Amino acid sequence: MNHTVKDAAFLPFEPLKQTNSVINEPRLVRWLLIAAALGFLSLFLLLPLLSVFVEALRKGAGAYFAAFGDPETLASIKLTFIAAAIAVPLNLVFGLSAAWAITKFEFRGKQLLITCIDLPFSVSPVVAGLIFVLIFGAQGWAQPWFGDHIGKVLFSTPGIVLATIFVTFPFIARELIPLMQEQGTEDEQAALSLGATGWQTFTKVTLPNIKWALLYGVLLCNARAMGEFGAVSVVSGHIRGLTNTMPLHIEILYNEYQFVSAFAVASLLALLAMVTLAVKSFLEWRYADQLAATRRH
Amino acid sequence: MPGLTPTLGFTLFYLGMIVLIPLAGVFFKASGLGFAGLWKVITSERVLAALSLSFGAAAIAAVLNAIFGAIVAWVFVRYEFPGKRLFDAFIDLPFALPTAVAGIALTALYSENGWIGSVLAHAGIKVAYTPLGIIVAMTFIGLPFVVRTVEPVLREVERDLEEAAATLGARRWQTVLRVIAPAVFPSLVTGFALSFARAVGEYGSVIFIAGNFPMVSEIAPLLIIIKLEEFDYKGATAVAATMLVLSFLLLLTINLLQAWVRRRV
Predict the structure, then answer these.
(1) Which of A32, A160, B191, B263 has the fewest CB atoms inside 10 Å of its own CB, making it the most exposed?
(2) Nearest CA in chain B to A191
């Protein structure tokens, strides 16, 4: 066994060195381009990320962990999780049903519907917050009814959840639609013709086909939901310990010159971002064919 | 296939409740001002300064991203180097890192005693709390768009065509300029547009580094918030509606331009 491997090494099967310089740039140009690209990425991406942790640990680990003992910080962490825990599942249900309707059926105005689903991506987060102030604010048109029947929306948790839903609205639908369009309806037709109910077809045939894309969409949706700043800032009212999410709490700490605390909370979100990127890269590497990879935005 | 009525029904209901009706409210409210009232708000000195700052800085940031994004995409598609996979994962950092975190990190870096700011201070360049800082933040958040739209297109370019060009006597730079560039250009325009659109509306990462001086470094989204805090709902809505319309018109122009470029290639 051993010597065959050894012998094989002497066979002329080594890949030929690329010598076709006509479709390659001179070595110096290649080096300069790589240096420019990596320099740009380091300056704009790696340094800011690194500085979050350096600033957070500037006064030592004790000061770093003390930042998390503050009840207002803990309240902001809790609110961030609550908002994401409501917004992400709702957008998940929406993403699934929108993708099902759009990819399994033909109807007029489909392209318009897809464009409308993408709308929240092209709206400034501040404007996203503003639209809910116009509805539920003191002079808002829905406020009289809501105030009487449901309660306060603006400057409380429901408003924050609504704004979060709006800005993360397209994430899951956008990931699912191109993939399910490519997969077609053959698998589902087969299951239905064998006597499966619609629900069985969905859970036993469609869902396994799209599970990684679904996870990918949920991951990006969650990252944005927990990190949203502009939209939430407009509707929150900044009541300490009550309506501040983590990003808003970071702003308050920062403006009060509590830099270590601000960067400590920020480092939690930076860790979340790094985990998101790691899982995302893993999915892209391992399940590239089961993601709408060509449409990565 | 079963399930059209419930899924399409829920989709339209949810879309209407969360996105369409609330957005329509902006234009309804803005129309309450009347054309003259709207015009008065938009043409006030402070609003004009904020709008031109937002759109101008976003345009510069998008150009920077187009140039460096194209280089990054080229390097990642064509060359091998150590750490490539790691850098590749980090390109999407601006999508994953909350804007407020990016904002305070960039401010810490570029302020006068920061790692980069202190170096630039020697050269007499001030970035934090000036319009330059706004451009830096906007470049950060728009960075992945160009790379991620150009990459797949560049990967599709047939290397046979480049060989053909070379055998026909083209120099390497001529091949790059005449063969590769036209194929990639439409995707570069798309990336530019996406990056621009994101930068125009950006708030979280910008306000920390901008300094927010009225007429100098006050962006349009911040002006909306200031007007809201003064309970000037109509003024805030007017600025918001203007931003929506301007962004929409710009994207429409760019889409048309792109269709035109595609037809010519």
Answers:
(1) B263
(2) B1
Whether residue A277 and residue B96 make contact (CB cut-off 8 A), yes or no, is: yes
Of B219, B194, B189, B198, the closest CA to residue B207 belongs to: B219
The verdict on A297 touching B (C-beta cutoff 8 Å) is: yes
Give the Cα separation of B26 and B17 in Å (integer).
14
The answer to whether residue B207 scores a pLDDT higher than 90 is: yes
Question: What is the torsional sign of CA A190, A194, A195, A197?
Answer: negative
Query: How many angstroms separate the CA of residue A32 from the nearest CA in chain B?
Result: 10
Q: Are A99 and A217 in contact (CB under 8 A)?
A: no
Tell if the CB–CB gap between B236 and A36 is shorter than 8 Å: no
> In angstroms, what CA-CA distances link B106 with A258, B65, B172?
17, 17, 39
Q: Which residues of A touch B177 (CB under 8 A)?
A: none
Q: Residue A207: CB partners within 8 Å, gap ≥ 6?
A: A214
Q: How far is B241 from chain A (nearest CA, A)?
A: 9
Q: How far is A74 from chain B (nearest CA, A)?
A: 17
Segment 176-215 of chain A within 8 Å of chain B by CB: 185, 188-189, 192, 197-198, 201-202
Q: Verify whether the Cβ–Cβ distance A189 to B221 is below 8 Å.
A: no
B204 touches chain A (CB under 8 A): yes
**Domains of chain B by residue range:** 42-264
Assess contact for A270 and A52: CB atoms under 8 A: yes
* Residue B161 Cα, gap to closest chain A Cα (Å): 10
| Inter-CA distances, A139 with A134, A152, A158, B95, Å | 7, 13, 18, 35
- For B171, other C-beta atoms within 10 Å of its C-beta total 11
The set of residues, in sequence order, having a beta carbon less than 8 Å from that of B91 and lying 6+ positions away, is A41, A45, B72, B143, B144, B147, B148
ipTM: 0.91
Per residue in A194-250, pLDDT (tens digit) is: 999 999 999 999 999 999 999 999 999 999 999 999 999 999 988 888 999 999 999
- Reported as a single tens digit per residue, the pLDDT across B215-231 is 999 999 999 999 999 98
pLDDT class of A65 with cuts at 50, 70, 90: very high
Which own/partner contact pairs does A115-119 have at CB distance under 8 Å and 24+ positions apart? A116/B15, A116/B19, A116/B20, A117/A169, A117/A170, A117/A173, A117/A174, A117/B15, A117/B19, A118/A170, A118/A174, A119/A170, A119/B19, A119/B20, A119/B23
Convert the pLDDT of each residue in A113-152 to its tens digit.
Answer: 998 998 898 899 999 999 999 999 877 878 778 877 778 8
CA A174, A178, A179, A181 torsion-angle sign: positive
